[in-house]
Amino acid sequence: MTRLRSIIFTLLIGITALLFFLVLFDSSLQVPAFIQVFGRMHPMILHFPIVLIFFSVITYFFLEPKKIISKELSDTLILLTAFFTVLTSLFGLFLSQEPGYEGDTLVRHKWFGIILSALTLCWYLFRDKLNANSLLPKLKWILSPLLVVIVVIVAHLGANITHGEDFVFAPLQSDKQKPEVPFDQALVFADVIQPILDAKCVTCHNTKKSKGELIMETMEDLLKGGKSGALWDSANPTASLLLKRIHLPETDKKHMPPPGKPSLTDEEMVLLGAWINSGASFTQKLSALPETDTLRLLAASKFDKSSIKTYAFPPADAGTIAKLNNSNRVITAIALQSPALLVHFYNAPFYNQAALKELEPVGKQIVELDLNKMPVTDEDLKVIAGFTNLERLHLNFTNVTTSGINALQGLKKLEMLSLTGTKTDAGLVNAVAPLKSLKNLVAWNTGLEKDQVAALKKSNPGLLVELGYKNDTLVMQLPSPVILNEETTIIEPQLLKMKHYINGAVIRYTTDGTEPDSLKSKVYDEKEMITGTMAIKARAFKPGWHSSALVSQYFYKSTYRPDSVVLTLPSDPKYGSTGPKALFDLIKGENNFAGGQWLGYQNNDMEALAFFNKPVTIKELAVSTLSSVSSYIFPPLKIEVWGGTNPKDLKLIGTIAPKQPAAYEAPQVVPFYLSFEPKTVQCIKLKAVPVSKLPKWHSGKGEKGWAFIDEVFIN
Amino acid sequence: MAKEFLEHHLNMNRRRFLSRLGVGVGSVALGSLMIPDLFGSKEKDALVAGLPHFAPKAKRIIYLFQNGAPSQLDLFDYKPKLIEMFGEDLPASIRMGQRLTGMTANQAKFPLAPSAFKFDQYGQSRAWISELLPHTASVVDELCIIKSMYTEAINHDPALTFFQTGAQVGNRPSMGSWLSYGLGSENKNLPAFCVLLSRGKGNGQGVYSKLWSNGFLDSVHQGVQFSSGDHPVLYLNDPESVSKEDRRKMLDKLSELNQDSYNEFGDPEITTKIQQYEMAYRMQTAVPDITDLSKEPESIVKMYGPDCLVPGTFAANCLLARKLSENGVRFVQLYHQGWDAHDNLPGQMKGQCQDVDQASAALITDLKQRGLLDETLVIWGGEFGRTNYCQGKLEKENYGRDHHPRCFTIWMAGGGVKPGIVYGETDDFGYNIVKDPVHVHDLHATILHLMGLNHEELTYKHLGRRYRLTDVSGNLVKGIIA
After folding, report:
1. Which of A352, B345, B355, B477 is the most exposed place for a label (fewest CB within 10 A)?
2. Which residues have CB under 8 Å from B57's CB, separation 6+?
């Protein structure tokens, strides 16, 4: 006997250590399958400690002192009690790791169980101490009820987990608790607002207490108001007494609920506010409110407790799914461990009815089917009709028609049907009517019109119909045509290349610097050759659109390039480019002034001399400049062209006075031309004067402006 | 004798004590077998299943990233108080000594700059929207506007990197890569993660390919950049005179060789390579069809704005994003540059808004009329906000704003977020958040949740520790989940 007790005691110590250790790391515990078996024995062995504790309490506290039973028997009983209590706790801990065991009750059950285990162990360890110090008679009436009470609590909590709360007394309770109201039937007042008032207001404002002469129990009481008047004012809801009181600072004496009472949460305050603002109706249905209504959105979450949908049907065979899966027909579970399947078809050329029919073995599991842009026919819909758990069906841009939709009437769970871009028509009103679970019908670009939606809403209240965006009558401006020629310096004749991204847009253009119009100007026909200096101005036109903004591009012919160039006045050291060469290197500067192509001038004029080895006869000169107003860069104030045989013998050929910008504008390259009677020269002088004072409207008014010059073309 | 007895007794006790202790320690050791994490002894890289942890609310994401940080104060966060206090110094009690960028830290004054634009309330939700975004205002009842975003970084690159990868330093996987890793691709003919770039007229900030990098994840999860022009995906077409059949044969042979070297070296990157060749082959048929926008009907063109046919514009990218998304691309990441308006903000904003407003709104409408909005999550916003005080010279119609990470506005729409709500609030100055702050990690956690993933369980072990998109933080923003 002693030996057996010793073994049991050793085991007891071991199990206790294990128990406390595992409790410590409860959250990261992973129970292997064979241990689960022990866990599941918890509901069976838990009966041992319950009975044993009662026995031991009687034997130890009441029978042993009177020597009715032997000490050895009593000790053995306590040892067994402790052993089974700890063991049960341990098994319970294993069981609690299985899915489905959570919540406050479980936590309480666990901790009371552990306390009980510790108590019984201590009881065994100190059983002689208690006796020896003759504490027993004094503590008898404290310890024995304590043990019994804890056992009862643990057992009760455990029973609650297994059988549900208040399992024992449920038959005695009157049916006070309201059944859960489904969202569709919920009333704003009765199911959203009243519960808030009941929880937070009615404790003081009831028929017995009626603080401030206000009762908030029924509709009549609420309408009557209290000592300070009506609770709300329909004419000016935001100034309502109730809202004022709940929004007062908490330190304010009149703030409701008063200090010490549970206060309203932010959400509750918003709900009350939204309800009063919407007219404080007592009969409004929650589901009748618009989808985006604040009240509805906030309240809806109360009725939709589980966001994770569960499905009753068994999972399909994994092997079958794997076999059916390919890159044109993708089958996936909607989530890990969910039996529900999602099927998506891709690549229209690979689609056929057989591909759909092959899905039949997993048909029951398909909850979503995406056939957008597949050549689905009405015949195919009969196959789909067999997928009875289907919730979402996408048939956009397929070949289905209204009569085909009739085949879907058996889909009792269909919530969403999209038919955008199909040949379905007004007959949809009848075809969809039997689909009572349908919540969302997408029918943009079909024959279904606005007027018929009303009829549809009558047969299927709550159905949202999306007809999409119609803009047939909208007139917009066409974007400008795009000139594709990248090379704007013409050495060899090249084809003018233009493009417009909108189908059917006509490009008209001029080459003489005039504005193109929609009637007389040339239509772009991909045949225009650019042979010389030319200003292309183009616009796009299309019926039903406003004509586009003007786009222009300058092309420069370069007949003569000087044999040498010198800058007689220096350019700014920061913008020196490649020096004098830059003016005739056929590489034109772009909108970016720091691009390295530009010669920049601020403190002095630009002056350059160009020399030809042999005399040339010129009649036209073009200077390309930059205008970048926000960077203080303006076209030059004046450009002078001089010509002659040598630098000492130059005559003014002509002057250009560039037009100056009058407001901020985007940076652009602006060319200036000078045409003149043919002159034979061997030397040309070019002079450009930067703007000396920036205009008043410019943020740098009065300061010196910059002139940026690159590329000069001589013809 | 008594002494010996006592000793014997003590010895016995010690022996018994030790033996019992042994049992106790043994039990603990037994218990530790059930706690695999205790000594880090077991791998727990569970998720490679490519399936959501729970039923997702959204299947796909289109992220319209507004790079450079648009000013929330000129678009969404209406602050009449600033009009009252035009030009007054930002009170120290509001600024609370928070750090500023080097661009304005040395300013003598921080004059409050109200928006030059008119605001009005729109839709059922009565949300405030500025006159710069008339089209966005027309779809406001589809939007969930979050006014209380905040971030940690104060300069563009770290902030952008933080937004895209959950860390300010580079080399971590991008959000799109995490989703590709967690959920796999829907359409095997297209990558799961695509990237589209566009540039507005305003002051721009760079975007770099590190933003769509797979980091330490398998390289199949890398974002694939679609460029504008004739070749949206570079090097996708067969070289001239190589036929489809030849290409197939070549790939088969190459795959055999790769398989051989995989058998020899066992480097998983080799199988990745095989997969990528196969993907590229399939993309050869899928991509030209999707990137051809010329077949879009005129009503769609008008809806997105005529720019949508001009390759490389934001509008064209929105339209392309819709096409990619409806063809099963999990994550389409757009970047639109040009929002960094340190000066001339009103002028720059006008241009930027013209570029993005119509197309952003059209994307929502277009997804809706295809029945795709409730399964596609659209997100619009920048990497941080802009200051309520002026950078540089303040005029009524001309001012600039510096970087402001302490509050900014983004919006989301579609898949699983509450439509028509405004979440979070900032103070009257638009400087600090006073209600429902949303950290970038919180946003990431919420985005993953909407896609059916638990952000704490989507992990990848690298260099001896498990990484998450949300690092070691992130709380679900329950208030915006429908």
Report:
1. A352
2. B415, B416, B450, B451, B452, B481, B482
Per-residue pLDDT of A214-262, as tens digits, reads: 888 888 888 888 888 888 887 888 788 888 888 888 778 788 887 766 7
Backbone torsion region of residue A583, taken as left when φ is above 0, otherwise alpha when ψ lies between -120 and 50, otherwise beta: alpha
**Do A503 and B366 make contact, defined as CB atoms within 8 angstroms?**
no
Q: Which residues of A472-494 are buried (b: 16+ CB within 10 A; e: fewer)?
A: eeeeeebbbbbbeeeebbbeeee
Of B25, B189, B310, the CB nearest to A346: B189
Q: What is the pLDDT of residue A305?
A: 43
pTM over 0.95: no
pLDDT attached to residue B46: 46
Domain with A415 in it: 318-466
ipTM over 0.90: no
In a domain, A180, yes or no: no
Q: Do A338 and B27 touch (CB under 8 A)?
A: no
A666 has pLDDT over 60: yes
Q: What percent of chain A has pLDDT over 70?
A: 95
Identify the three-state secondary structure at position A154.
helix
Tens digits of per-residue pLDDT, B51-77? 888 889 999 999 999 999 999 999 999
CA angle, residues A575, A580, A582, in degrees to nearest 5? 70
Same domain, A546 and A564: no
Q: Do A59 and A156 lie in a common domain?
A: yes
DSSP A317: P
A472/B26 touch (CB, cutoff 8 Å), yes or no: no
Average pLDDT, chain A: 86
What is the nearest CA distance from B88 to chain A, expressed in angstroms? 23
Q: Across the interface, which of A9, A15, A444 has its CB nearest the CB of B27?
A: A15
Residues of A in contact with B32 (CB under 8 A): 21
B418, B422, B126: which is closest to A277 by C-alpha? B126
Asked if A418's CB is within 8 angstroms of B371's CB, the reply is: yes
Nearest-CA distance B29 → chain A (Å)? 8
pLDDT tens-digit series, residues B339-358? 999 999 999 999 999 999 99
Statement: residue B6 has pLDDT above 70:
no
B60-232+308-480 CATH, one of 3.30.70.20, 3.40.720.10, 3.40.50.150, 2.60.120.620:
3.40.720.10
Nearest CB partner across the interface for B52, out of A336, A344, A444 = A336
Is A308 close to B303, i.e. CB distance below 8 A?
A: no
pLDDT at A153 over 50: yes
The verdict on residue A122 lying in a domain is yes
Is the distance from CB of B382 to CB of A258 less than 8 angstroms?
A: no
Q: How far is B189 from chain A (nearest CA, A)?
A: 7
Rounded to the nearest 10 degrees, how much is the dihedral formed by the CA atoms of A388, A394, A400, A405? 40
pLDDT of residue A672: 86
Put simply, the answer to whether B49 touches A336 (Cβ < 8 Å) is yes
B363 vs A178, higher pLDDT: B363
Mean pLDDT of B80-88: 93
CA distance B465 to B463: 6
